[in-house]
Specification:
Length: about 375
């Protein structure tokens, strides 16, 4: 369910004005008010790539990767040729621990913008978060080559090198970054969104400080007072369509799996009833656990029970199909325990009914 903006959207206010106001609120650590401004802007311009990208960055900064990924996906769909949505999408995927997908996005950034300094240094840092190696180090060096006076390029080189345990190189990179911009030393305590990437790389380097001293003792670093952050209380984007799609997909996966397992078990009884029961029970447990785990992951950060209770009022037939799809593999387990064809037939019928309810439901 989307959060309510604190004010009605003003038709005379442009999406960029909403975005700038949100950035100002974020600089003050008031992420909740920033989210309300973005929500108001999206009410007037739901396909504005700048607002969607800023919303994704806000959720990344607030530690809400699921909501960040939802916003980033929409931003990429609206503006597939822009680099910023891809950058924040890779961040959200990494924070969701979907490292393979994050590495693919980082690789795409490096490939599509080989001569753009921001793309090379950011792609290198993102790649090193998900799959560090020589490719990330090469890209970091390329970022320094393209922008040798950019402090963030040297910061990224330091982070990538430190993750590879090349601590001498990391020391030199961090020293150069501080020489070019002493504010790098306190970047990890910034709360705004404009320099989200810089803060992320600085925080990453800070976590590696226990293994090597990366900050020169003689360098005076500015001190920044910590700012209290008030995160968004809920998702700005309405994720009901995503939730419904996840429930439908779970029913189809579960029902098809049960029907295939039941048919194979019935055939296997011709040669060995014991083997058929054991196999059916194993598949039933796998399907039951897999459905619950997959659905729980898809609807995060909300609990699965909360999502199902809300869906009862908007899509009661779909919820019944979900319950049927979960009960069907449990009947396979029952067949494994007590034998007989009744549980096996009941599992097939229940799975077929669940799939039919989904396929005949209007989208």
């Amino acid at each position: 369910m989307s959060s309510e903006p604190t004010s009605q959207s003003d038709p005379e206010t442009t999406p960029e004005e909403y975005r700038q106001r949100a950035l100002l609120m974020a600089d003050l650590g008031r992420y909740d008010e920033a989210a309300a401004d973005i929500a108001a802007g999206l009410a007037a311009a739901p396909a504005d790539a700048g607002l969607l990208t800023t919303l994704a960055r806000l959720h990344v900064a607030a530690g809400q990767p699921v909501d960040a990924l939802a916003a980033a996906d929409r931003a990429v769909a609206v503006a597939p040729r822009m680099i910023e949505p891809l950058v924040v999408r890779a961040m959200a995927l990494t924070d969701e621990r979907r490292f393979g997908e994050a590495a693919q996005v980082a690789g795409e950034i490096l490939t599509r913008w080989p001569e753009e300094a921001f793309a090379q240094r950011t792609g290198a840092a993102l790649l090193s978060e998900s799959r560090n190696g020589q490719a990330a180090l090469n890209a970091a060096w390329n970022g320094v080559r393209l922008a040798p006076r950019d402090a963030e390029a040297h910061l990224v080189l330091a982070v990538v090198a430190a993750r590879l345990r090349l601590f001498d190189l990391a020391q030199r990179g961090y020293t150069e970054a501080l020489d070019l911009d002493p504010a790098i030393g306190d970047a990890q305590r910034d709360v705004g969104l404009v320099r989200l990437e810089r803060r992320r790389w600085a925080q990453a380097l800070e976590t590696l400080a226990d293994e090597a001293t990366l900050a020169p003792a003689e360098t005076e670093q500015p001190t920044v007072e910590p700012v209290d952050v008030t995160p968004p209380v809920g998702p700005v984007l309405d994720r009901s369509a995503v939730t419904v799609a996840a429930l439908r997909q779970a029913v189809l996966f579960g029902a098809n799996g049960v029907m295939i397992a039941a048919v194979l078990s019935a055939v296997m009884t011709l040669s060995s009833a014991g083997v058929a029961r054991m196999w059916a029970g194993m598949i039933g447990v796998v399907l039951l656990a897999g459905l619950v785990v997959w659905l729980t992951r898809q609807v995060r950060p909300e609990p699965l029970g909360t999502v199902l209770r809300r869906a009862r009022t908007t899509a009661p037939r779909l919820v019944l199909a979900v319950y049927a799809a979960v009960l069907a593999p449990a009947l396979l387990v029952l067949y494994a325990v007590i034998g007989g064809l009744a549980p096996l037939v009941a599992a097939m019928v229940l799975a077929a009914v669940a799939e039919l309810m989904v396929l005949t439901q209007r989208a």
